[in-house]
């Protein structure tokens, strides 16, 4: 059997380009005792991977070597097993890479045995019912300590985490405000997702004033997916004892060595704000709760799971480039073949 993989051909400068990636083919070896062979169905395309493509070691994830597999969260079906915890036909989800097949040993690799609900499309397990949705849920509920009546602002509100998070806030009885980068995205979050207000930061000559107009009583919870000048504009608009949930730094991923200088950090002291970063997989005790709540909302139609779907492993680099260029809405996923169900 031949395994097709996407590897790093060269390090990107700014937004990645197709020449940074290469499609290679390698034979699959036989399984050893304790291992499973997964045929991957869906890749999650995540912006955090961009930082791993630089030659640096100051991220929470290791840098990818030249010629190394591009890492990503995958969902796939077990086609061979020499491990009693997984049988053929089970679904596994784990942080693996852009490849058609993965050989893994669950004893030394974090791979979930996922119960796939036939009423839910497979792509949802990489997005709203996957770690994007779980990240939004954990960040708001535990890190942001969100309560009904709070004003919650979500940056990148049309993105993978933000599109779920802004709806969770609304469904939890909060005033939900999204920050987006186009009039199209503003219409999406207020119209399709039904949140209370949207701010198009590209169309706002004074972002600070636009935030004040949308949140006149201050912001109780700011869920930050981007950092940069949006974080800087948010800091003076936090309510007393507000909470900033630091999830991502999209504004810096393409210019890691020249980040935007934050000028309003003193507002953390002025308003006694708590600002905390987190990684959702460090809160596994909330996993069952998050999956049950998100799954219920999705199946009832209360939560709209927005997806941007590309088909074929050879098209994974283009999907990633579009994501890093700000051209996508919702969760960007790559399905390996046309038979994979989508939302």
In terms of topology, how is this protein built?
Elements (H helix, E strand, L loop, with lengths): L1 E7 L12 E7 L8 E9 L4 H4 L20 E9 L9 E5 L5 E4 L6 E4 L16 H13 L7 E5 L4 H12 L3 E6 L2 H10 L4 E4 L6 H8 L4 E6 L3 H7 L3 E9 L3 H4 L13 H4 L3 E4 L9 H14 L6 E5 L4 H9 L6 E5 L8
Parallel strand pairs: 8-9, 8-11, 9-10, 11-12, 12-13, 14-15
Antiparallel strand pairs: 1-2, 3-4, 3-6, 3-15, 4-5, 5-7
Helix pairs in contact: 2-3, 2-9
Briefly say what this structure is:
With 343 residues, this protein is α/β, with parallel strands linked by helices. It is 25% helix and 26% strand.
Describe the structure.
The chain folds into two domains: 2-127 and 305-335, Alpha-Beta Complex (Quinone Oxidoreductase, Chain A, domain 1), CATH 3.90.180; 131-281, 3-Layer(aba) Sandwich (Rossmann fold), CATH 3.40.50. Helix content is 25%, strand content 26%. The chain contains ten helices and 15 strands. The strands form three sheets. Strands 3, 4, 5, 6, 7, 14 and 15 form a seven-stranded mixed β-sheet that branches. It has a six-stranded parallel β-sheet with strand order 10-9-8-11-12-13, with helices on both faces. Helix 6 (228-234) links the parallel strand 11 and strand 12 (238-246). Residues 16-334 form the Enoyl reductase (ER) domain. It comes from Sphingobium indicum BiD32.
